[in-house]
Structure formats: structure tokens, C-alpha cells
Specification:
Length: about 180
């Protein structure tokens, strides 16, 4: 059955790709031959083919591992980029311990992040004057939009629940915003 589906898809693709339909309009389309544009290059019209993201080659925009270790009380290794605008700092002696930080500078990524938070359920305001406007999602992720940037912090270093570790996330976020 699976072979039939694959064969049918290949046949359909070949038919569409090789169609010589005379009824189409006469508008010409310029296309580049495969392999003529490098990844991330611009198209022939000058538009970028690469998705616009908060590109981070490393975690240098985040607080240092030493600073985070001092705030959460656990030695942490250097951060690793794990996603768009996101770094994870794992415990030096226990890699199950982690601090995850996200920094979204692109408005589209900020909107996507906030949409995701809304889809998880209602976030609640953090009761901390130093972080006015900060919210906590149902999974105890702490986030705030400040200075046109969205910051998010989740701390998992004590073995307790994320909610029990919210004071540590609050300390990390407070120090991060002060940088």
C-alpha cells in the first residue's frame, strides 16, 4: 500500500511538473537553475530566501554561565543555542539541571511566542514590583516584553516543580534586565 501511495505521488508530481498547458497566461517567470543560489542568498528579485529570525551564533547575548550559577546556586556550563533566540545552560555535574533563556528581538517571533503562550492557557501576572508586566505561563515559564524585546526564563535546578523554582527564575530575569 505504501509503495502505491509513493508511486501515485511521484506520477502526480511528474504530471504537474511536465505539464504543457497552453491555456496558461503568457506572463513569463524567471527561475534560477538548481544550485545557483547559495543558502541564505537573495532571490533573483532581491528578496531574501532565508527566514527572518533572531539569529544567535552563540549565547553571548545572554547572562554568563558564572552569573547564572551564582543566581541559581548550581554550577552551570556555557550555554548552547537550542532554538531561535534560545540558549540552554546545563548543570556542570548534572546535565538534568538547566536554565533556559530566550531573547526575541524580531516582532514576528515575539508575536509567535506570545501566541504560543496564549494557546497554553491564561498567563498570570508576576507579583514583583521589580518586574512590572512580567507574566507566568501555566508551565511556570516567566516572561516579559521590555524595551521592544521579549525575555523568557525557566529554571529547573532544584528537583522541585517549575512553580517552586519561580523565585530563581525571577532572580535571573531581574539580573538579566539590569545588564
Amino acid at each position: 500500500m505504501q509503495r502505491r501511495v509513493i508511486a501515485l505521488c511521484a506520477l502526480l508530481l511528474a504530471t504537474v511538473a511536465c505539464s504543457d498547458d497552453e491555456s496558461t497566461d503568457s506572463t513569463s517567470v524567471t527561475t534560477a537553475a538548481p544550485g545557483t543560489l547559495a543558502p541564505g542568498a537573495t532571490s533573483l528579485t532581491g528578496e531574501s530566501l532565508a527566514p527572518q529570525t533572531t539569529f544567535m551564533p552563540d549565547c553571548s547575548q545572554m547572562p554568563s554561565a558564572a552569573s547564572l550559577s551564582a543566581q541559581v546556586g548550581v554550577p552551570l556550563d556555557e550555554g548552547q543555542v537550542t532554538g531561535v533566540g534560545t540558549c540552554e545552560f546545563l548543570g556542570v555535574n548534572d546535565q538534568s539541571l538547566s536554565v533556559v533563556l530566550s531573547l526575541f528581538t524580531d516582532p514576528a517571533e515575539q508575536a509567535a511566542f506570545l501566541d504560543l503562550q496564549a494557546s497554553l492557557g491564561a498567563s498570570t501576572p508576576l507579583n514583583d514590583a521589580a518586574l512590572a508586566g512580567a507574566l507566568v505561563n501555566p508551565n511556570s515559564l516567566l516572561y516579559i516584553t521590555a524595551n521592544n524585546v521579549t525575555y523568557a526564563v525557566q529554571v529547573m535546578v532544584t528537583g522541585g516543580t517549575p512553580a517552586e523554582q519561580l523565585p530563581l527564575a525571577t532572580a535571573v530575569l531581574t539580573a538579566w534586565l539590569a545588564l
